[in-house]
Design a protein that fits this description.
It is built from ten helices and nine strands. Helix content is 36%, strand content 16%. The radius of gyration is 20 Å and the shape is elongated.
Length: 282
Amino acid sequence: MPVPPDSARAALDVLDGRSLLVLTGAGISTDSGIPDYRGPGSPARTPMTYQEFVSGPRAQRRYWARSHLGWARMGTAQPNAGHRGVAALEASGRTTLTITQNVDGLHEAAGSRNLCALHGRVADVVCLGCRATTRRAELAARLDALNPHWLERHRDVASRPDGDVALDETDDFVVPGCTACGGVLKPDVVFFGENVPKSRVERCYAAVDELPGRDGALLVLGSSLTVMSGFRFVRRAARLGVPVVIVNRGSTRADDLATVKLHTGTTEFLAELSEVETAGTG
């Protein structure tokens, strides 16, 4: 049974002296201005599935018209103290791996290197024909040229958490093909209805399986764990008897598996953890 979440003290005590496997979700990026999926007050949404995206040009226009606007905002987002806190844990040797379900690239920008971006990175683009990968910035420049004034016309549209926006009028948006083969371009991220690459899943499972021998713990930051891609690692850790600390505003799918569950912000908790770490080495 979870320890009552009356303070961060219980969580800090559980984590004290342990190696940490960190799993992050959208909640760690809200302080960078990127909205989350299921936090308190988040609107209901139905993101485009992989099957819809590959259904034809109309769906692809709709996706890229929205995503081009979203990229203009997400692409300028900066890491916050939560991302820097995770990077500091890595630099101090506390973490075995950071698994992120986010596609925003902010952990990398903050300095995390031992990282598995489970769902890919929105800053990369892949061709579904020849599988060539290119930088999103290159595609953004092509989209700007083909759709002049698009960003200015829709600058007041609300942002969404995975790098797109709430926009319905997209039929006049022009989408280019791959420069190498003319094929369909897709952000190099895992869509709903698409499988996480097997190699990433195996890497994450291996990191969980190492925790008992390392006297480790799993620290979940800012994820509701609603989708299986992250929840399965928590379930595996709990089955192995590994302590699980979940820090998230709102309930999660794994609350009953947590050793400690804290209803607080990730930035605030990581600041407390940093203070404890600093005091312990002072």
